[in-house]
């Protein structure tokens, strides 16, 4: 396990996830590891997505923020449900936002803003339904 975040950073990221999920039935997770186990961070993120059971959400609207901090690699991947609805450039614009913060070592700030942006998209396409919505995935950051 590796953790580049202070406990305050972690809490701010988890708070951002909880805040984003208040307005949507979508699910957001963050996974952090030191090194990317594959050459392609998107491929690794897809593996982690499956390992975390993110494909099991009812509306297939999970989003994973993946970060391999020592390798300076990251990816943002969404499940089929959200990929079918968000604009074609959504993931690229989200990665651009993250890259701007990550390049200066501000991982927690980048993640918080990226989560906020993803939450806005999820809210637009998968609004919160208080009658049927449950938190299907843990909000805590997972580490390898």
TrEMBL record:
Entries under Gene3D superfamilies matching the protein: 3.10.310.50
Record-annotated TPM domain positions: 5-120
Entry protein name: TPM domain-containing protein
Organism: Spirosoma agri
């Amino acid at each position: 396990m590796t953790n580049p975040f202070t406990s305050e950073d972690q809490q701010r990221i988890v708070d951002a996830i909880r805040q984003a999920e208040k307005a949507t039935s979508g699910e957001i997770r963050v996974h952090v590891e030191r090194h990317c186990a594959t050459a392609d961070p998107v491929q690794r993120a897809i593996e982690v997505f499956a390992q975390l059971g993110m494909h099991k959400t009812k509306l297939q609207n999970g989003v994973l923020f993946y970060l391999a901090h020592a390798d300076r690699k990251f990816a943002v991947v969404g499940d089929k449900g959200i990929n079918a609805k968000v604009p074609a450039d959504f993931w690229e614009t989200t990665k651009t936002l993250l890259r701007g913060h990550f390049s200066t070592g501000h991982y927690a700030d980048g993640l918080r803003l990226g989560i906020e942006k993803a939450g806005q998209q999820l809210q637009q396409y998968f609004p919160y339904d208080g009658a049927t919505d449950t938190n299907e995935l843990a909000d805590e950051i997972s580490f390898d």
